[in-house]
Amino acid sequence: MKVIEKIREAAKEDRVIFSFEYFPPKTEDGVDNLFERMERMVAHNPAFGDITWGAGGSTADLTLDISNRMQNM
């Protein structure tokens, strides 16, 4: 389901939703830490997650990896 569809559905039901935004870490330890946190945060049932794209695409590959992992949680 697309994010906009989730928002519209929640609005029709007068339901509050929230999301999490993540920034791609700069170290391998940071990546491991982020994945552990994401697994804990998914238990709160956010409507969606957002990953910041690095300036000039500097974190493009990592951003895509994080996005893929998030979609499969």
From TrEMBL:
The Swiss-Prot or TrEMBL record lists the needed cofactor(s) as: FAD
InterPro entries for this protein: FAD-linked_oxidoreductase-like (IPR029041), Mehydrof_redctse-like (IPR003171)
Print the keywords alphabetically.
FAD, Flavoprotein, Oxidoreductase
How is this protein annotated for GO cellular component? cytosol
Molecular function GO labels: FAD binding; methylenetetrahydrofolate reductase [NAD(P)H] activity
Homology family: Belongs to the methylenetetrahydrofolate reductase family.
List the protein's name: Methylenetetrahydrofolate reductase
Q: Which organism is it from?
A: Nymphaea colorata
